[in-house]
Amino acid sequence: MLKVLPVILAVFLSVMHFQFYDGSGNATEQGFISEPHNPRNHLTQDSSRRNEVTAKVMSIGEASSKDSEIILSSSNVSEETDNFNPINRDENILRLTWKIVPFAVKYKVYNNDESFVSYTSGIEFEVPPGHANEDFQITALDFDGNVIDEHVKIATREVNPTAPLTTTEFDKMDYAPAYVVYSWIPTKDADHYEIQLIKNDNVVREYVTEYHPKDDNFDFYDPKPLIDEGDYFWRVRGLSADNTPITAWSKRNESNSFKIRKNARFCAIGDSITHGGGSISVPPSTAVYNWETYCKVPVKNLGKSGDTTDDILERFERDVLPFKPEVVFIMAGVNDYRSGILAWHSVMNLTAMKEKCIQHNIKPVFITPTPLNSRLIRKIRFVEAPPSDWHEHMKYICDWMRKQENCIDINELFMDGDGNLREDLSVDGLHPDAEGKEIIGNAVSDWLNRYLDSLMPVY
Q1: pTM of the predicted model, to two decimals?
Q2: pLDDT digit string (tens) for 242-261?
Protein backbone atom coordinates (compact mmCIF):
# COMPACT_ATOMS: atom_id res chain seq x y z
CA MET A 1 0.00 0.00 0.00
CA LEU A 2 2.81 2.43 0.88
CA LYS A 3 4.36 1.97 -2.57
CA VAL A 4 1.08 3.02 -4.16
CA LEU A 5 0.61 6.16 -2.05
CA PRO A 6 3.16 8.35 -3.89
CA VAL A 7 1.48 7.53 -7.22
CA ILE A 8 -1.97 8.31 -5.84
CA LEU A 9 -0.69 11.59 -4.41
CA ALA A 10 0.93 12.62 -7.69
CA VAL A 11 -2.30 11.97 -9.62
CA PHE A 12 -4.32 13.83 -7.01
CA LEU A 13 -2.06 16.87 -7.07
CA SER A 14 -1.93 16.95 -10.86
CA VAL A 15 -5.69 17.40 -11.11
CA MET A 16 -5.93 19.90 -8.29
CA HIS A 17 -5.16 23.59 -8.79
CA PHE A 18 -3.88 25.06 -5.56
CA GLN A 19 -3.77 28.75 -4.83
CA PHE A 20 -2.24 30.46 -1.85
CA TYR A 21 -3.78 33.71 -0.68
CA ASP A 22 -2.03 36.46 1.18
CA GLY A 23 -3.40 38.14 4.27
CA SER A 24 -5.52 40.52 2.20
CA GLY A 25 -7.41 37.66 0.56
CA ASN A 26 -5.88 38.27 -2.85
CA ALA A 27 -4.12 35.60 -4.86
CA THR A 28 -0.43 36.39 -5.26
CA GLU A 29 1.53 36.08 -8.50
CA GLN A 30 4.38 33.66 -9.06
CA GLY A 31 7.98 34.68 -9.67
CA PHE A 32 10.38 37.27 -8.33
CA ILE A 33 9.14 40.81 -7.96
CA SER A 34 10.68 44.20 -8.55
CA GLU A 35 9.34 45.83 -5.39
CA PRO A 36 9.29 44.42 -1.83
CA HIS A 37 6.06 43.04 -0.45
CA ASN A 38 5.25 41.84 3.02
CA PRO A 39 6.08 38.17 3.48
CA ARG A 40 4.18 35.70 5.58
CA ASN A 41 5.73 35.35 9.01
CA HIS A 42 7.91 32.26 8.96
CA LEU A 43 8.04 31.99 12.75
CA THR A 44 4.46 31.71 13.92
CA GLN A 45 2.91 28.31 13.29
CA ASP A 46 0.04 28.51 15.77
CA SER A 47 -2.84 26.20 15.00
CA SER A 48 -5.44 28.96 14.68
CA ARG A 49 -3.62 30.52 11.70
CA ARG A 50 -1.42 27.68 10.50
CA ASN A 51 -2.96 27.54 7.03
CA GLU A 52 -2.22 31.22 6.58
CA VAL A 53 1.43 31.18 7.55
CA THR A 54 2.74 27.88 6.24
CA ALA A 55 2.17 25.88 3.10
CA LYS A 56 -0.33 23.05 3.33
CA VAL A 57 1.29 19.66 2.97
CA MET A 58 0.37 16.09 2.36
CA SER A 59 2.41 13.47 4.13
CA ILE A 60 3.17 10.29 2.24
CA GLY A 61 3.07 7.79 5.07
CA GLU A 62 2.74 8.39 8.78
CA ALA A 63 4.86 7.40 11.74
CA SER A 64 3.65 4.36 13.60
CA SER A 65 2.05 4.69 17.01
CA LYS A 66 5.20 3.21 18.50
CA ASP A 67 8.50 5.03 18.81
CA SER A 68 9.64 4.14 15.33
CA GLU A 69 9.41 5.43 11.77
CA ILE A 70 7.82 3.53 8.92
CA ILE A 71 10.28 2.97 6.09
CA LEU A 72 8.67 4.46 2.99
CA SER A 73 11.49 3.54 0.64
CA SER A 74 14.88 1.90 0.95
CA SER A 75 15.87 2.81 -2.58
CA ASN A 76 16.14 5.96 -4.69
CA VAL A 77 18.20 7.78 -2.07
CA SER A 78 21.20 8.23 -4.33
CA GLU A 79 22.21 11.73 -5.34
CA GLU A 80 21.49 12.16 -9.01
CA THR A 81 22.45 15.83 -9.28
CA ASP A 82 25.32 15.42 -11.72
CA ASN A 83 23.24 13.42 -14.21
CA PHE A 84 20.03 15.40 -13.95
CA ASN A 85 18.81 17.36 -16.96
CA PRO A 86 16.53 20.21 -15.84
CA ILE A 87 13.11 20.21 -17.51
CA ASN A 88 11.46 23.44 -18.68
CA ARG A 89 14.00 25.65 -16.96
CA ASP A 90 15.77 28.72 -18.29
CA GLU A 91 19.32 27.96 -19.35
CA ASN A 92 20.92 31.10 -17.95
CA ILE A 93 20.09 30.99 -14.26
CA LEU A 94 22.40 32.48 -11.65
CA ARG A 95 22.25 31.60 -7.97
CA LEU A 96 23.80 34.01 -5.48
CA THR A 97 24.08 33.48 -1.73
CA TRP A 98 25.20 35.68 1.16
CA LYS A 99 25.31 35.66 4.96
CA ILE A 100 22.22 36.56 6.97
CA VAL A 101 22.16 40.19 8.09
CA PRO A 102 20.54 40.51 11.56
CA PHE A 103 17.21 42.37 11.53
CA ALA A 104 16.99 42.13 7.74
CA VAL A 105 13.57 40.96 6.58
CA LYS A 106 14.38 40.92 2.87
CA TYR A 107 17.16 41.61 0.41
CA LYS A 108 17.16 43.50 -2.88
CA VAL A 109 19.50 42.34 -5.63
CA TYR A 110 20.33 44.90 -8.33
CA ASN A 111 21.36 43.79 -11.81
CA ASN A 112 21.74 46.73 -14.20
CA ASP A 113 18.21 48.15 -14.53
CA GLU A 114 16.53 45.12 -12.95
CA SER A 115 16.04 44.30 -9.30
CA PHE A 116 14.86 41.21 -7.49
CA VAL A 117 13.67 40.64 -3.93
CA SER A 118 14.64 37.66 -1.79
CA TYR A 119 13.45 36.70 1.69
CA THR A 120 16.30 34.23 2.16
CA SER A 121 20.08 34.53 2.14
CA GLY A 122 20.14 33.64 -1.56
CA ILE A 123 18.30 33.99 -4.85
CA GLU A 124 18.00 32.44 -8.30
CA PHE A 125 17.25 34.63 -11.33
CA GLU A 126 17.79 34.68 -15.08
CA VAL A 127 20.73 36.58 -16.57
CA PRO A 128 21.71 37.14 -20.20
CA PRO A 129 24.37 34.75 -21.56
CA GLY A 130 27.84 35.78 -20.45
CA HIS A 131 26.61 38.09 -17.67
CA ALA A 132 26.86 35.69 -14.71
CA ASN A 133 30.18 37.17 -13.54
CA GLU A 134 28.99 40.76 -13.50
CA ASP A 135 28.88 42.80 -10.30
CA PHE A 136 25.60 42.61 -8.41
CA GLN A 137 24.64 44.88 -5.54
CA ILE A 138 22.80 43.27 -2.63
CA THR A 139 21.05 45.50 -0.10
CA ALA A 140 19.59 44.28 3.19
CA LEU A 141 16.23 45.89 4.05
CA ASP A 142 14.07 46.01 7.14
CA PHE A 143 10.32 45.43 7.14
CA ASP A 144 9.60 48.95 5.90
CA GLY A 145 12.18 48.77 3.12
CA ASN A 146 14.77 50.88 4.92
CA VAL A 147 18.40 50.00 4.20
CA ILE A 148 20.26 48.10 6.93
CA ASP A 149 23.32 47.17 4.88
CA GLU A 150 23.81 48.63 1.39
CA HIS A 151 26.68 46.37 0.37
CA VAL A 152 26.08 42.76 1.41
CA LYS A 153 28.98 40.59 0.30
CA ILE A 154 28.25 37.71 -2.09
CA ALA A 155 29.30 34.38 -0.57
CA THR A 156 28.75 31.98 -3.48
CA ARG A 157 27.91 32.27 -7.17
CA GLU A 158 26.60 29.32 -9.20
CA VAL A 159 25.50 29.22 -12.84
CA ASN A 160 22.63 26.94 -13.89
CA PRO A 161 22.24 25.06 -10.58
CA THR A 162 20.62 21.68 -11.03
CA ALA A 163 19.38 21.24 -7.43
CA PRO A 164 18.03 23.44 -4.63
CA LEU A 165 20.46 24.70 -2.02
CA THR A 166 19.48 23.86 1.56
CA THR A 167 19.95 26.50 4.26
CA THR A 168 19.56 24.48 7.46
CA GLU A 169 22.47 24.84 9.89
CA PHE A 170 22.42 21.64 11.91
CA ASP A 171 26.21 21.62 11.85
CA LYS A 172 26.14 24.77 14.00
CA MET A 173 23.82 23.25 16.62
CA ASP A 174 24.87 21.09 19.56
CA TYR A 175 21.75 18.96 19.07
CA ALA A 176 19.27 18.60 16.25
CA PRO A 177 15.93 20.14 17.27
CA ALA A 178 13.05 17.79 18.01
CA TYR A 179 10.83 19.69 15.56
CA VAL A 180 12.88 20.06 12.40
CA VAL A 181 12.35 22.97 10.04
CA TYR A 182 13.48 22.32 6.47
CA SER A 183 14.62 25.44 4.57
CA TRP A 184 16.21 26.19 1.21
CA ILE A 185 16.90 28.88 -1.38
CA PRO A 186 13.76 29.08 -3.57
CA THR A 187 14.17 27.48 -6.99
CA LYS A 188 13.32 29.70 -9.93
CA ASP A 189 10.27 28.37 -11.79
CA ALA A 190 9.42 25.78 -9.13
CA ASP A 191 5.68 25.53 -8.57
CA HIS A 192 6.04 23.61 -5.29
CA TYR A 193 8.49 21.23 -3.60
CA GLU A 194 8.97 17.66 -2.47
CA ILE A 195 10.84 17.00 0.79
CA GLN A 196 12.26 13.70 2.02
CA LEU A 197 13.66 12.86 5.44
CA ILE A 198 16.12 10.00 5.27
CA LYS A 199 17.21 7.89 8.23
CA ASN A 200 20.01 5.35 7.91
CA ASP A 201 19.61 5.53 4.09
CA ASN A 202 15.84 4.87 4.23
CA VAL A 203 13.15 7.43 3.40
CA VAL A 204 10.99 7.71 6.52
CA ARG A 205 9.05 10.93 5.85
CA GLU A 206 7.99 12.60 2.65
CA TYR A 207 6.05 15.81 2.12
CA VAL A 208 4.79 17.73 -0.91
CA THR A 209 4.15 21.42 -0.34
CA GLU A 210 1.03 23.09 -1.64
CA TYR A 211 1.05 25.11 -4.83
CA HIS A 212 2.35 28.40 -3.53
CA PRO A 213 2.85 31.11 -6.19
CA LYS A 214 4.97 33.39 -4.07
CA ASP A 215 8.70 33.95 -3.84
CA ASP A 216 8.91 33.40 -0.07
CA ASN A 217 8.14 29.67 -0.18
CA PHE A 218 11.38 28.42 1.34
CA ASP A 219 10.70 26.46 4.49
CA PHE A 220 8.52 23.75 5.94
CA TYR A 221 7.88 22.95 9.62
CA ASP A 222 7.77 19.21 10.23
CA PRO A 223 4.66 18.66 12.38
CA LYS A 224 6.02 15.49 13.98
CA PRO A 225 8.87 15.34 16.50
CA LEU A 226 12.07 13.47 15.75
CA ILE A 227 12.64 11.11 18.63
CA ASP A 228 13.74 7.84 17.04
CA GLU A 229 17.53 7.37 17.22
CA GLY A 230 19.49 7.31 13.98
CA ASP A 231 21.58 9.17 11.43
CA TYR A 232 19.44 11.55 9.39
CA PHE A 233 19.62 13.94 6.49
CA TRP A 234 16.95 15.66 4.45
CA ARG A 235 16.65 16.77 0.86
CA VAL A 236 14.33 18.80 -1.36
CA ARG A 237 13.61 19.13 -5.07
CA GLY A 238 11.52 21.53 -7.13
CA LEU A 239 8.37 20.37 -8.93
CA SER A 240 6.34 21.80 -11.77
CA ALA A 241 2.57 22.32 -11.57
CA ASP A 242 2.01 18.79 -12.92
CA ASN A 243 4.46 17.35 -10.32
CA THR A 244 7.28 16.78 -12.79
CA PRO A 245 10.68 17.25 -11.08
CA ILE A 246 12.40 20.32 -12.52
CA THR A 247 15.51 19.86 -10.36
CA ALA A 248 17.55 17.06 -8.89
CA TRP A 249 17.49 16.39 -5.17
CA SER A 250 19.56 18.78 -3.08
CA LYS A 251 23.00 17.52 -2.11
CA ARG A 252 23.74 15.94 1.24
CA ASN A 253 26.18 17.91 3.40
CA GLU A 254 27.04 18.59 7.03
CA SER A 255 24.49 21.37 7.37
CA ASN A 256 21.48 19.21 6.42
CA SER A 257 22.65 16.07 8.25
CA PHE A 258 22.26 15.28 11.93
CA LYS A 259 22.09 12.54 14.55
CA ILE A 260 19.32 11.79 17.03
CA ARG A 261 20.45 10.24 20.30
CA LYS A 262 18.26 9.58 23.32
CA ASN A 263 20.50 11.16 25.88
CA ALA A 264 20.42 14.90 26.50
CA ARG A 265 21.37 16.09 29.96
CA PHE A 266 19.70 19.48 29.48
CA CYS A 267 16.55 20.11 27.41
CA ALA A 268 14.38 23.16 26.71
CA ILE A 269 10.69 22.97 25.92
CA GLY A 270 8.50 25.86 24.83
CA ASP A 271 7.07 27.76 21.87
CA SER A 272 8.66 29.60 18.95
CA ILE A 273 10.92 31.66 21.21
CA THR A 274 12.58 28.40 22.27
CA HIS A 275 12.21 26.85 18.81
CA GLY A 276 14.09 29.75 17.17
CA GLY A 277 13.99 32.03 14.15
CA GLY A 278 13.72 35.79 13.84
CA SER A 279 13.21 38.89 11.68
CA ILE A 280 9.99 37.35 10.29
CA SER A 281 11.74 35.65 7.37
CA VAL A 282 14.47 33.60 9.09
CA PRO A 283 13.17 30.20 10.26
CA PRO A 284 14.42 28.18 13.25
CA SER A 285 16.66 26.11 10.96
CA THR A 286 19.37 28.78 11.24
CA ALA A 287 21.53 29.26 14.32
CA VAL A 288 21.77 33.04 14.73
CA TYR A 289 18.20 33.43 16.04
CA ASN A 290 18.24 30.40 18.37
CA TRP A 291 18.95 31.17 22.03
CA GLU A 292 20.51 27.72 22.43
CA THR A 293 23.31 28.94 20.13
CA TYR A 294 24.45 31.42 22.77
CA CYS A 295 24.36 28.99 25.68
CA LYS A 296 27.86 27.72 26.48
CA VAL A 297 26.44 24.43 27.75
CA PRO A 298 24.65 22.27 25.13
CA VAL A 299 20.85 22.30 25.46
CA LYS A 300 18.48 20.11 23.43
CA ASN A 301 15.79 22.16 21.67
CA LEU A 302 12.29 20.73 22.18
CA GLY A 303 10.50 23.95 21.26
CA LYS A 304 7.57 23.98 18.86
CA SER A 305 6.40 27.16 17.18
CA GLY A 306 2.88 28.32 17.97
CA ASP A 307 2.46 26.24 21.12
CA THR A 308 0.35 27.40 24.04
CA THR A 309 0.80 25.91 27.50
CA ASP A 310 -2.03 23.51 26.62
CA ASP A 311 -0.03 22.25 23.63
CA ILE A 312 3.21 21.92 25.57
CA LEU A 313 1.56 20.04 28.40
CA GLU A 314 -0.11 17.67 25.93
CA ARG A 315 3.22 16.68 24.35
CA PHE A 316 5.39 17.01 27.45
CA GLU A 317 5.91 13.34 28.29
CA ARG A 318 6.18 12.22 24.66
CA ASP A 319 8.81 14.81 23.75
CA VAL A 320 10.78 15.11 27.01
CA LEU A 321 11.00 11.69 28.61
CA PRO A 322 12.74 9.82 25.74
CA PHE A 323 15.82 12.04 26.15
CA LYS A 324 16.13 11.33 29.90
CA PRO A 325 17.15 14.87 30.83
CA GLU A 326 18.47 15.91 34.21
CA VAL A 327 17.12 19.45 33.79
CA VAL A 328 14.28 20.83 31.64
CA PHE A 329 13.99 24.56 30.94
CA ILE A 330 10.35 25.57 30.50
CA MET A 331 9.62 28.85 28.73
CA ALA A 332 5.92 29.18 27.93
CA GLY A 333 2.93 31.46 28.23
CA VAL A 334 3.46 34.18 25.62
CA ASN A 335 1.06 32.53 23.15
CA ASP A 336 -1.46 32.25 25.97
CA TYR A 337 -1.70 35.91 26.93
CA ARG A 338 -1.37 37.13 23.33
CA SER A 339 -4.44 35.05 22.38
CA GLY A 340 -6.63 35.72 25.41
CA ILE A 341 -6.01 32.55 27.46
CA LEU A 342 -6.40 33.43 31.14
CA ALA A 343 -3.27 33.34 33.28
CA TRP A 344 -4.72 31.05 35.93
CA HIS A 345 -5.19 28.42 33.20
CA SER A 346 -1.59 28.90 32.04
CA VAL A 347 -0.31 28.49 35.60
CA MET A 348 -2.41 25.36 36.01
CA ASN A 349 -0.63 23.88 32.97
CA LEU A 350 2.79 25.00 34.17
CA THR A 351 2.09 23.42 37.55
CA ALA A 352 1.20 20.15 35.82
CA MET A 353 4.51 20.27 33.90
CA LYS A 354 6.35 20.83 37.16
CA GLU A 355 4.63 17.81 38.71
CA LYS A 356 5.54 15.65 35.73
CA CYS A 357 9.17 16.67 36.13
CA ILE A 358 9.18 15.80 39.82
CA GLN A 359 7.49 12.48 39.08
CA HIS A 360 10.28 11.56 36.67
CA ASN A 361 13.15 12.95 38.76
CA ILE A 362 13.76 15.90 36.41
CA LYS A 363 14.63 19.37 37.69
CA PRO A 364 12.24 21.97 36.20
CA VAL A 365 13.68 25.43 35.58
CA PHE A 366 11.20 28.10 34.50
CA ILE A 367 12.20 30.97 32.19
CA THR A 368 9.86 33.95 32.41
CA PRO A 369 8.16 34.69 29.07
CA THR A 370 8.88 37.88 27.16
CA PRO A 371 6.46 40.82 26.78
CA LEU A 372 4.59 41.82 23.62
CA ASN A 373 4.58 44.94 21.50
CA SER A 374 1.03 45.51 20.31
CA ARG A 375 2.03 48.33 17.95
CA LEU A 376 4.40 46.12 16.00
CA ILE A 377 1.98 43.20 15.98
CA ARG A 378 -0.73 45.43 14.49
CA LYS A 379 1.75 46.78 11.97
CA ILE A 380 2.96 43.38 10.75
CA ARG A 381 -0.56 41.83 11.00
CA PHE A 382 0.58 38.21 11.12
CA VAL A 383 -1.50 37.38 14.20
CA GLU A 384 -4.42 39.03 15.93
CA ALA A 385 -3.53 41.90 18.23
CA PRO A 386 -3.43 40.82 21.88
CA PRO A 387 -6.21 41.74 24.33
CA SER A 388 -5.78 45.00 26.23
CA ASP A 389 -5.14 43.26 29.56
CA TRP A 390 -2.27 41.03 28.39
CA HIS A 391 0.16 42.80 30.76
CA GLU A 392 -1.82 41.56 33.77
CA HIS A 393 -1.79 37.96 32.60
CA MET A 394 1.92 38.10 31.76
CA LYS A 395 2.67 39.46 35.25
CA TYR A 396 0.57 36.72 36.87
CA ILE A 397 2.57 34.01 35.06
CA CYS A 398 5.93 35.66 35.76
CA ASP A 399 5.11 36.17 39.46
CA TRP A 400 4.23 32.48 39.77
CA MET A 401 7.49 31.45 38.09
CA ARG A 402 9.53 33.73 40.34
CA LYS A 403 8.20 31.86 43.38
CA GLN A 404 9.45 28.52 42.08
CA GLU A 405 12.63 26.90 43.35
CA ASN A 406 14.39 27.45 40.01
CA CYS A 407 13.58 30.44 37.84
CA ILE A 408 15.54 32.41 35.26
CA ASP A 409 13.95 35.86 35.18
CA ILE A 410 14.58 37.60 31.85
CA ASN A 411 11.17 39.28 31.44
CA GLU A 412 12.13 42.81 32.50
CA LEU A 413 15.28 42.76 30.37
CA PHE A 414 13.00 42.89 27.32
CA MET A 415 10.72 45.70 28.54
CA ASP A 416 10.64 49.29 27.41
CA GLY A 417 9.42 52.08 29.70
CA ASP A 418 5.79 51.13 29.10
CA GLY A 419 6.24 47.45 29.84
CA ASN A 420 6.15 46.42 26.17
CA LEU A 421 8.65 44.37 24.19
CA ARG A 422 11.55 46.62 23.22
CA GLU A 423 11.46 47.49 19.53
CA ASP A 424 15.24 47.25 19.28
CA LEU A 425 14.94 43.55 20.16
CA SER A 426 12.10 42.50 17.84
CA VAL A 427 10.84 43.06 14.31
CA ASP A 428 7.34 41.65 14.68
CA GLY A 429 6.47 42.51 18.29
CA LEU A 430 6.36 38.88 19.42
CA HIS A 431 9.67 37.17 18.67
CA PRO A 432 12.97 38.44 20.05
CA ASP A 433 15.63 38.68 17.36
CA ALA A 434 19.34 37.86 17.52
CA GLU A 435 20.27 40.21 20.37
CA GLY A 436 17.25 39.10 22.36
CA LYS A 437 18.05 35.42 21.84
CA GLU A 438 21.58 36.12 23.03
CA ILE A 439 20.18 37.63 26.24
CA ILE A 440 18.17 34.45 26.89
CA GLY A 441 21.06 32.15 25.98
CA ASN A 442 23.47 33.97 28.26
CA ALA A 443 20.99 33.88 31.15
CA VAL A 444 20.52 30.11 30.76
CA SER A 445 24.27 29.67 30.45
CA ASP A 446 24.84 31.59 33.70
CA TRP A 447 22.28 29.43 35.52
CA LEU A 448 23.88 26.24 34.19
CA ASN A 449 27.34 27.35 35.24
CA ARG A 450 26.11 27.96 38.79
CA TYR A 451 24.28 24.65 38.79
CA LEU A 452 27.27 22.68 37.56
CA ASP A 453 29.54 24.44 40.07
CA SER A 454 27.16 23.40 42.87
CA LEU A 455 27.63 19.76 41.89
CA MET A 456 31.42 19.93 42.20
CA PRO A 457 32.82 18.37 45.35
CA VAL A 458 34.24 20.77 47.92
CA TYR A 459 37.66 19.85 49.35
Answers
A1: 0.85
A2: 889 999 999 999 999 999 99
